[in-house]
Specification:
heterodimer, A: about 170 residues, mainly alpha, Glutathione S-transferase Yfyf (Class Pi), Chain A, domain 2, 3-stranded antiparallel β-sheet, B: alpha+beta, OB fold (Dihydrolipoamide Acetyltransferase, E2P), 3 domains, 8-stranded mixed β-sheet, 15 helices
Chain lengths: ~170, ~525
Amino acid sequence: MMAFRELSSLEKSLGLKKPNKYSTQGDKKVPVLHSNNGPALVGLVTIATHLVQEAKRPKLLGGSAEHKALVQQWLEYRLTKVDGCLKDDIKTILKDLNSYLEDKVYLAGNQFTLADTLMYYGIHHIIVDLAIQEKEKHMNVTRWFDQVQHYTGVRHHLPPVVVLRNRVYTSGHH
Amino acid sequence: MTKDAVQGAAEEADQAQSKKGLKKQQKEAEKAAKKAEKQAKLAADSQSTDEDDFAKDRYGVPQMVQSQQKLDRVLVRVQKLTPEKADQLIWVRARIHTSRAKGKQCFLVLRQQQFNVQALVAVGERASKQMVKFAANINKESIVDVEAMVRRVEQKIESCSQQDVELHIERIFVISQAEPRLPLQLEDCVRPEGEGDEDGRATVNQDTRLDNRVIDLRTTTSHAIFRLQSGVCQLFRDTLTNKGFVEIQTPKIISAASEGGANVFTVSYFKTSAYLAQSPQLYKQMCICADFDKVFCVGPVFRAEDSNTHRHLTEFVGLDIELAFNYHYHEVIESITDTMVQIFKGLRDKFQTEIQTVGKQYSSEPFKFLEPTLRLEYTEGVAMLREAGVDMGDEEDLSTPNEKLLGRLVKEKYDTDFYVLDKYPLAVRPFYTMPDPNDKKYSNSYDMFMRGEEILSGAQRIHDAQLLTERAIHHNIDLEKIKSYIDSFRYGAPPHGGGGIGLERVCMLYLGLHNVRQVSMFPRDPKRLTP
């Protein structure tokens, strides 16, 4: 279900006019796209990559070889670490992402890529539940998240998350 | 082999064995002899020292003080031991904070309340070897009387409050001996949070400290906290007295619960039962009806809430205010907030040492407030919370997390740790709260917050017997039980309002502490009834 909505939002954000039809495969409900010309595509990242190509926006997959590799790395991170993560893992994910994003606007540096969109979709359920204090504690993640949710055409099916611009937990007192 | 040969071999073996045994015996005998010699020497030593201890009148454990004699001796306060007293021979009564013997001398740190001074007993003209040994063996926390020469020191003694002098002890007497083993160490109680972790030093957890409260209260931090608390009470009294208030005493054993019956303690009262007062609410209002005009009350209040949180006690000290006003209950708010501001100012100006002492163990930002005090309406507060992404209803009460968050938002926007939230929804307030004339959903009631936590709850009260009865019925209160209360308003009652403050919470939040038990001398909560 979630993957379908995510892919359909992605289609819209890429400006693809004709919506595709998806099915699922296996226990983990891996999305499958049956295309007219060629074999079926399996898996969220594979399909997403395909959609980007179809929309003729290859830059979303990265410019240089290095950039491309970074994008792939974060797409993989999304699938392996974020999806189906346990409560205990959330802290680690937020901590890691927060320190990684300290000096970056987007996941793969200074350009918006597919990694940002998919990570945003994947992490939304975590961020939406965070208390203000938690959001402030992971302020780099929150800043990135706010940037992405306001990026033209990305948000779609997900509710906006309030992000305060000022820090309110500046002192040690709680 | 012949029989003889066999025997011979056996004898040989025997002999060999006995030889070994002999040696062993000899050795043991030698050892014993040595031991005896040593003991004899020791005994002789002690005997001889007993004889030639020239200082034996200068130390010891005198008779228990049972008021046998009234000495003219002046005991100087440790705090007064400054360079001006240098080269004077003085008497001090203090506790042994620490002692450290090193060869012919023994260093002591003598403590009196939050002050301490270094003292030294050294073998010399005034002190014998035995006296130094005696001093070194006095248990920690014992109380001693000391006669000593005050000496200026070259290098400041960083570990003591009296840094410029030390005491050269000439006489030392134990007035009260402490047990050798203390249930906890004072140093472990004042160690700043988190500091002990690195070097593996112990910190004492709160329950252990409260179990041994008498010792825990001896720490500099505890002393500072309770001096400040005493200051809050005094500032509260002084400010209100200056404003023309009268201090009243109200009964704590009452016949009916003032704010709903759920959280009151029931006590058996001869053939019937009574309650412990949750607040002096009804009585201070009755005083207003009796024309006392402006009253306050400092005393215990009881809450039977089974909540084990950092800020709930079952018995705490309530600072209650009630006053008649002319036309608008904001006159009351202004009077109370001004009182609070006077307290904050008084603490800031007169208790800086105490604030800093507490800050050494529990660091926090200085308390900030505005003058005049910020007043927000409930709807504004709710709007601020919604803007921050909190989902809540118009007439919903503030949850603790939201309360704290709102405190944060207010601090960020207005830079104040103290503010008033006015016009609470009527539904979440007690029956005697005056409804808002413009909007039936709201009421003329307010809470005051320090660092985002509620310290005062107050309102304009209903002074009309008719309306009061209606509201009581609406809240399903047995009219029979509050008859005398409602009746007090039948014979002319001025419009009035007030509020009640929790003393412990004010101290806790002013100092930025995390647990109300730290500011209650002998805290009472659902799980603690002793000490």
